[in-house]
Amino acid sequence: MKQNQSGSKAYLFSIVLVAVIGGLLFGYDTAVISGAEKGLQAFFIGSKDFIYTDFYHGLTCSSALIGCIIGSAFSGLCATRLGRKRSLILAGIFFFLSALGSYDPEFLFFEPHKPTFGLMIAFNFYRIIGGLGVGLASAICPMYIAEVAPSNIRGTLISWNQFAIIFGQLVVYMVNFVILGSHTNPIIEVVNGIGTVASGSDPWTISTGWRYMFLSNAVPAGIFSLLICLVPETPRYLAMTGRDLKALHVLERINGISKASEILEEIKKTVTIKTEKMFTYGVLVIFVGIMLSVFQQAVGINAVLYYAPRIFTDMHMGNPMMQTVIMGIINISFTVVAILTVEKWGRKPLLITGSLGMAVGAAGVAISFGSSPIMTMVSIMFYSAAFMMSWGPICWVLIAEIFPNTIRGKAIAIAVAFQWIFNWIVSSTFVPMFNMSVGGNANFGHVFTYSVYGIVCIIAAFFVWKLVPETKGKTLEDMNKLWKKN
C-alpha cells in the first residue's frame, strides 16, 4: 500500500529505461557510418557501370538524414494518430529492417557482392528506412519521457535520453573498432572528385567489414522493438483521447494515488480541447523551439561526430579509431554532468555556459590546426565536452517540455524536422568547407570552418539569454500559462 501512496520509482525508471533505448538506437544508427564509410566507398568505387564520385559518396553517407527529416516531420502525426507507444514500436521496426537491408542490400534483386548503380540506390533506400526510425525516435522518445515523468525530475530523465544517444555512439565506435580488428580501412586516393582504391588495401574491409557494422544495429533494434510493447501509453495521451481511467492507473503507479488524481485534473484542464491551432499560444513559442533545434546543429557538433576518424587522420596522431573512442568516453562523462546539474542549475545557465565553452574550443581548433596537433585535439575534445554538458541533452529537455499539451506533438515535429534539416546542411557542407584552400594555404578551410562554428556558438548564447524561458520545476501544464497570449 505504501508503494501505491507514494508511487513506484522502480516502475518509472523501468519504462524510461526502455524509452531511452530508442535514444541509444538514434546514436547508434547515425554514428555507424563513421566506421563503415571508407569500406563502403571502396566497395562502390569498384563498380563497372558508373563512376562513384565524391558527390555520390556524400549522398550515400548522408542518405539516412533524408529519412530523419521525413520521420521527424511526420512524428507529430504519428504521435497524435497512433500514440506515443505505437509510434516508438514503428520506429523500432524501421531500425531493424534498415540494419538487415544495409547489411545485405543485394537481397532478392541484385547479384551478391557486385557493386552497381542500382545496388547503391537500394543501399540508400535501406539507410533512409533507418533514418525514418531515427526521426521518429528523436522526436517521440523525449516526448514520451516528458509525459510520464514527474516535474521535479523531468529534466534529469530526459537528459538520460541524450546520455543514451551518446552511449549509442560510443558503443558503435567500439563495435566498429572490434569488427575491424586486425584489418585496416582502405586507402582512397581522390583526383578531381573520382576515387581509386590504393593497391594493398584490405579486401575483407571492402567486401565484408562495413556490412557487419550495419548488421550490428539489428541487436539493439530487436530488443527495443520487443520491450517497447511492454510499456504503457503516456497518461497525457490517454487523457487527450478520453481514456481517463487508464491515464489515472498509470499516474497512480508513477506518482501514487493521492497525487495521481490531482495531476489528472490538471491534465484534463489543458486538454479539454484536444487539438488547437499551431499558433494558439503565439509565434514566439514555435520560434524558440525551432531555433533551439537550429542552434543545436548549427554549432557544428555532428560534423565532428560523423567525420571524427577523418579529422583525426588529418592530424596524424596515432590510431584515429581509438581517438574517436576516447572522444566518445569524454562525451559520455560530460553528458553525466548535465544529468546531475540540470535540476540544480536550470536549463538556461547550462546552455549559456556550454555555448561559451564551445566557442572557446572552436577558437582553439581554428588557431592551432596544422601547427599544434596536441592543442587541436584538446580543443576538439573541449568543444565536444562543452556541447555534451549543455546543448546535447538540454535542447531535447526544452523541446520536450516547453510546448503546451494540445500542440506538443505538432510543435515538436516541426522543431525536430528543422533539427535534422540543419544536421544535413552542416554535415554536407563540412567537408567542402574543411578542405577549402585559398592562396595555397591548405589550412584555410580548417580555420574558416571552426571560426564559423565559434561565432554561431556566441550567437546561440545570446539567443538563450534573451528569449528562452527557464522551465526548471514547472509542470507541463504550466506551459499553457507561460505562453498563453494575454
Structure write-up:
There is one protein chain. The chain is mainly α and 486 residues long. It has three domains: 1-231, Growth Hormone, Chain: A, CATH 1.20.1250.20; 237-270; 275-486, MFS general substrate transporter like domains (Growth Hormone, Chain: A, Up-down Bundle), CATH 1.20.1250. 75% of the residues lie in helices and 2% in strands. The chain contains 22 helices and two strands. A two-stranded antiparallel sheet has the order 1-2. Helix 15 (308-315) crosses helix 16 (320-345). 53% of the residues are buried.
Keywords for this entry:
Growth Hormone, Chain: A; globular; 486 residues; mainly alpha; two-stranded antiparallel ribbon
- What is the name of the CATH topology of the largest domain? Growth Hormone, Chain: A
Low-confidence stretches: none
From the 3D coordinates, which CATH architecture of the largest domain would you assign? Up-down Bundle
The major beta sheet can be summarized as: 2 strands, antiparallel
Strand order of the largest sheet: 1-2
Summing up helix and strand content along with how strands pair, one would put the structural category as mainly alpha
In CATH terms, the superfamily of the largest domain is: MFS general substrate transporter like domains
Our measurement of the CA-to-CA distance between the termini, rounded to an integer number of angstroms, reads: 44 Å
Q: With helices defined by DSSP (H or I, 4 residues minimum), what is the helix count?
A: 22
Shape: globular
- What fraction strand? under 5%
Q: Give the helices and strands as they follow along the chain.
A: HHHHHHHEEHHHHHHHHHHHHHHH
According to DSSP, the number of beta strands is 2
